[in-house]
Amino acid sequence: MKKNRYILTAILSVGLLASCSKSFLDQQPTNQVPEDQVFTTADNVETVINGTWAYAMETFFTYSVPGFTSILRASDAMGDDVAVTTKYGLRDAYTFVEMVDNTKNRVSAYWTILYKVIDNANSIIANVDKATGDDAQKARLKGQAYALRGWCYLTLASFYQFNPIVDPNAKAVPIYLTPTTPTTKGNPRATIKQVYDQAIADLLAAEPLVTGYNRGDASKKYKIDLNVVEGLLARAYLQTQQWTLAQQKAAAARNGYPLMAGADYLKGFSDVSNVEWIWGHPQTPNQSNASYNFHFLDVSDPGSYYYSFMADPFFKNYFDNGDVRTQLFDWDTLPSQEGYLRYKKFRFRDQTALIGDLVLMRTAEMVLIQAEAYARSGDAGNAALKLNELRSARGAYQYVQNTGSLIDTIMIERRKELWGEGFSLSDILRTNGTVVRKAFTSYTGGDSIIQVPRADGTFKAVKAKGHRTLRFPDGTVFTPQSKYYLFAIPLSEVQNNPSLNN
Amino acid sequence: MLQRLLLIFLVVLGPLLGAAQTRTVTGTVFSAIDKAPLPGATVVVKGTTKGTATNAEGTFKLDVTDPSATTLVVSFIGMKPQEVAITTAPIRISLESASKEIDEVVVIAYGTGKKNSLTGSVSQIKGAELEDRQISSVSRGLQGQVAGVQSTAQSGQPGTDATIRIRGVGSINASSDPLYVVDGAPYTGSINAINPSDIESISVLKDAASSALYGSRGANGVIIITTKKGKGNGTNINARVSQGFSKRAVKDYAQVSTNDYFQMYWEALRNAGLTNGLSADAAAAYASSNVVSDLGINPYGTAYPTPVGLDGKIVPGAHPLWNDNWNNAMQRTGQRTQADVAISGTSDKARYYVSGGYLNDQGIYLGSGFKRYNVRTNLDLDAKKWLKVGINLAAAHSDQQAPPSEDSRSDNYVNYGRLMPSFYPIYQRNLTTGAYILDANGNKIFDYGAYRPSANNPNTNLVQTANIDLHNVNRDDVSARGFAEATIWDQLKFKTTYSADYTQRMTHDYTNPTLGFDAPIGGTVDRGSYRTFSWTFNNIFTYDKTFQEKHHISLLAGQEAYKYKFTFIDGNRSGFSLPGLTEPADASVLLGYTGYSDVFTLSSYLSRAEYDYKGKYFFSGSLRRDGSSRFSPSRRWGTFWSLGGSWKMTEENWLKSSKWLDLLTVRASYGAQGNDNLGSFYGYQALYVVNSNLGEGGTYRDTLANTNLKWETNLNLNVGVDWSMFNNRFGGTVEFFQRKSRDLLYQLPLAPSTGYPSIAQNIGALRNNGIDVTLRGVPVRTRDFQWSVDLNLTHYKNVVTSLPQKEIISGTKKLMVGHSIYDFYIREWAGVDPKTGAPLWYVTDPTTGNKTTTSNYSSGSLYYSGSALPDIYGGLTNTFTYRGISLSFLWAYSLGGKVLDQDYPQLMHTGNNPGRAWSEEMLNHWTPTNTNTNVPLLTTNNTNWTSTSTRFLYDASYARLKNVNLSYTLPKSLLDKAHLNTVTVYVTGENLITIYGHKGMDPEQAVAGVTYFRYPAIKSLSAGINLNF
């Protein structure tokens, strides 16, 4: 009897000792990967470029901040030509109470996206040389990382401080050039000139490294190649008033991307295969967070939730008859949006999956940069040539030299051509301009009644609706260099970065 | 149901009726002190060995064959034996304590102990106290019952658990949840899978001496749930059935009428027009012209196309043609049905308990509810003289309908009705007459409101689709506890236990393809599977011996290993081919598919030594070492320990003779416990998240490494005194505690420009000092009537004692030495500017210190604004018994502390969210004639006034009648013929009365004092019957 119990105890004791193997306490995640495994091969480093890009484009903060491109939505909501309705989303950016307020989710979301991309780019720049693999691939990856970083600093420079023409030494945002470590402390704000210089330096560093890189078919248009880098440089030079360089880089960027046919302008701006798109982010049913932007932009698809980007009725007046773009205007007679002027430029590509590709850069913008750079450097002839190149493509009247201000004409053409693509506020800031919004009322100041033709041949009388916010929230009139134009640095940065204002 | 049960019983037992030729004596044995039934008391015919023992309910039935017998002797260990005359009427026997104290056996870590001999702090709740409660999760039964336990049931969604904090908040970011132990092993199954009827007792271990043996995970206290075992003689069958109804516990925030809404929205538009520079007349015209088009509908009918005149008043003659209440339409009276049967007993070498349970708890919101099916088998065998084996097996299946109700989703079922004002029709209306529009069959047609503003979810109608869409959570829980205990030599025993908990949670969310939210994309379906499997394997030697009848030692040493594995998969699709189909196979577009698994392991060595001298002086010590996979190899081992002592003064000669004092014990303990749970399983590593981009693999930097990350340590001091007096009629426990946590596991915020919101670190220290008081008394005790009172209260203060930097601001709180981790640090509301109606906040100039006001929210300064933690909380129970009638009230209360209401501001917009409902308080908005107000002027511009500030910080003090129970135990004489032992009928209510100042909000909120979109708490009224035979 006693023997039995000793045997049993012995068996159990052996069993428990055997179960205590050393590796029992070593556990690894399955949906994350330790850093040291990432920088072993060039192919692995490639995943960081892809993953960072997906993070930037697809991260939801709230439904009103669907990734990086929602920065472009805010830029337009804070400008002249989009009359944002009271629907969820950009309504507070439109009334200038959101981006000035460092407690707002949108403010911290944009900051978080931009600096997350910068840190990942820094990590690639610092570590890619150590990886094994094809040298050309490694060089290109480094170039793309420089370009990503330059793009982020260019975006920060565009929205977080007035253009250097106002004050080049004004403090803007912190600059980081090395990957964050556990001991990294927050950097102080660099001057706006330093931030622009950094953006341009990064893009110039990227230029030779991506030269010769062929990214493949249209579905890869999200990848950064030489055209994209040149286009970003053209923007950077335009914003820093370096006209010749801006013109040259714009010309290089559009190389291989002809202006689209007039009819393509009416196809919804949601297909990356458009010949004019130099850079864009495609969407699929299972990668569609960025498509949520279309719920604000798309004002005609019944599946669109918010359709809040209506056109200012005054905007319509800038167009000539016959301009293909005028076909997009349509006064709305549906119950909840009656009287709004729809500009049906953006439409979901797939109306059952509610997805649409996001445009990031296209030839028309480069043509306009060329025109503006020529005009501002005094070459009115070439400027008019470029302006008319675009106008003919859109079926608009040709500009005749010495009729009205050439620069003003080009700036208005930018608004007409690039409406909804994110250039409103950044153009106001880079030109030290001001927001202009007027109430759309009858000449007596009362309701402006519009007779809208319907498909069945009848007309419906609707009260036209235009801008609903005509002043800053404190009741003052719109002026240049207003604090309301600048994106705030989020409160969490102010609270956790003691060096911020050093 | 009940009839059916009774029928079965009668059929089975009927033939036995009338068979008895002898005298049958029945009765119940109680403890005199607390009137609790005494199971296992011996009842014998005087002078013989013939007798029986009382069952679990303390009742007995004895057939006396000897006609000459006249007296029964009733005895129970520790009680004075009592003689009673034999009668055929049921007898109630009340046994007095033999010694002057009653010592309760309580379940403690890795064993049991006598309450008055413990060096640590343990409170125990008996299963009987939970049996009649209409709760679907055990965690909800603790509120107000145990000193030191802070329990808040934040959600009224059936089947959800309460949050439990024991003796303050020991961690900032690391988990502050206690460890649940079920039948001896840490439990990782669902708490709501445990049937409260199966519970024998719940022990709450509050200090180091009692819980340090669970070292690694005991830092936040331990809740030990012990399920019932077979006991007594023979077989005992217990059946319970109850049926109840539920409603919202407190009324929702009151809202303005349609007329008020339209006039106020007019005012908001007019004021925005003035801000835009319009003249007063132009602004008024603009407002009158835009009210209806902004709100999307004209409830005054087409006869009044401009219902609000230029004076801002509803034009004469206009009145709303309908007034619909969406909040009510989304709710219903919930029904609750519960039925349990348990069979238990003992035989020569086995003890068994077998039970089954059914619960159907319907929610008060459409499409919500919880159904549970339970079975349990607890079996103990004496396999050999030296070998005991046992197995407890429990399985539960539950179907929960859990629609979105606790997040900011637009299809949140609670917010949906709350935020929809009265002028949006539920059913389509004729816009001229207001009459319902009927379909061909004469039925009303749901209005999907394409015209509604975005605040009111256009193209949806949850009142209809709540009955079509699915938000199901199906859960299967299997829990097994198996042990073998061998006596090796003398009092040396070896026990090996293998415990496993398995939970499979399957979610099924479906939105239909034709109506409502996801109709544009043809409906969606999401199926997720969340599987957890965990096991604990422990091997323990124990030795227990008394030397020279004075020295008693008890030793324990062993090893334990724990492994937790979580596996997750989730896939979703959209675009249903045909309506009526709800599974992924029926939908055409793959939206996503993902999955991963996590493993967490712990390896431990533990030991404990206890010694007492003559039952007078008690000492205990424990030591445990734990290795956790959450830390790097160099930092993963932690050592935890405890020391305790107690002195039972009433065992000393100089007190033994006291006439009035029955028990006086002083206790003290000190020790260290650990916490490794910072949320992440891999917090020490630098990790890249794996994602993808358009079919190509992706990764990006997500967390920074901190290989120095180590255990958070809690140092707990407990000093207490227990007493009992006047024949145990009055007594109590007072304990002082100090919990010091150091090396706090914390997500230290970083400047977001570094690319990271935070880094995992051990930072600083904090301290919880407090006092727990438990008082009990029987103010009135007569032969038939008794009134007893139980009161418990806890006060504690939570203070940060060390930080690596001056301050850390995180959300609505700021950490700073000398302040609590739950001290609000938010903007201070300075009222409404009487001149302009603008909202104001205080701002302090950092250089001069001057305090002024600003109407710009973001430039307002942040101030410490009080703590979310209550000053005192606890419970008060009054029980009245008169013969078989018992009436008890349990009040739970919490005094002091603040709560930040983040739900209410949704109804407090100034008109910047057109169409969203307005609370009644908005009627008091600023106007040039109403300048002394706390509500600013109306405008369609966002003034930020509803942003977080002390304006929405309310006193959190409340009292709630948690439970009231009226029961009647039928007299024995009625039951004998049915061969029933006891029959109790009862009526019970939960949350019937709530005393609270801020109307509309439920006072039971998160410990951190911030509300966030929740399913409101319910009150319920139920009736039930318990049968025992």
From TrEMBL, chain A:
Any GO CC annotation of this UniProt entry: cell outer membrane
Domain spans labelled SusD-like N-terminal: 24-212
Coiled coil region boundaries: none
Signal peptide: 1-25
CDD domains: SusD
Source taxon at top rank: Bacteria
Protein name per its UniProtKB record: SusD-like starch-binding protein associating with outer membrane
Species of provenance: Chitinophaga dinghuensis
UniProtKB/TrEMBL annotation, chain B:
Membrane protein topology class: Multi-pass membrane protein
Domain of life: Bacteria
UniProt keyword Signal present: yes
Gene Ontology CC terms: cell outer membrane
Translocase in keyword set: no
Main localization (coarse): membrane
Compartments where located: Cell outer membrane
Signal peptide (from-to): 1-19
Cross-referenced Pfam families: CarbopepD_reg_2, Plug
Residues annotated as domain TonB-dependent receptor plug: 115-222
UniProt entry keywords in alphabetical sequence: Cell outer membrane, Membrane, Signal, Transmembrane, Transmembrane beta strand, Transport
Coiled coil: none
Family statement: Belongs to the TonB-dependent receptor family.
NCBIfam families reported for this sequence: OMP_RagA_SusC, SusC_RagA_signa
Protein name (Swiss-Prot/TrEMBL): TonB-linked SusC/RagA family outer membrane protein
